[in-house]
Amino acid sequence: MIYLFRIKNKLIMKKLLLCAVLAVFGMISANAQEGFKVGINMGLPIGDASDNSSLELGADVAYLWELSDEFHLGATVGYGTFIAKEVHGYKPDNIGFMPIAATAQYSITESIFAGADLGYALVLSPSEVDGGLYYLPKVGYQNDLFEVYVGYKGFSAKTKGASVNIDIPGDPFPDGTDLGDIEVETEGSSSITMSAIVIGFNYRF
Question: What is the pTM of this model?
């Protein structure tokens, strides 16, 4: 019961944080005349992620302030998911996450830029996975309307124990009481890195 209570609290906090972030970016987009952009990306999982994922898909919004002609700094938030693949007849849940990060971009020339996002990846599902450090170094082409880039997108994740209900087979007790279910909580956790080589497209406002 304690484990289930923790999961419910975690889900409530995730929803509140998501609503707050969306509200902030909604106000920014309503008032911003430049520096605001929205994007989509997709990638090929590598490393630990390639063991149980076949594709990474994501979308994000960002706002950057111009600190100089070449350098811009801002914030970004988005949503991504690692699409699970079937392994030995079993297909795990997709891993959905929300990156919240600082973002920086440097224009090497008028059309070539390098940049990076650095922050935290909040894992939204499944509940047995916790998020961690998020990063996305990238390089790409830009003009006044859009950007196209290649990057390395990843975050640190930790899987944790979960509780499961097990039905006990057999006859009921003499008084007719069913043997029922027992709840078993697994212990232990492990750290993994979810990462992918991605290509992305951003539209500039």
Answer: 0.73
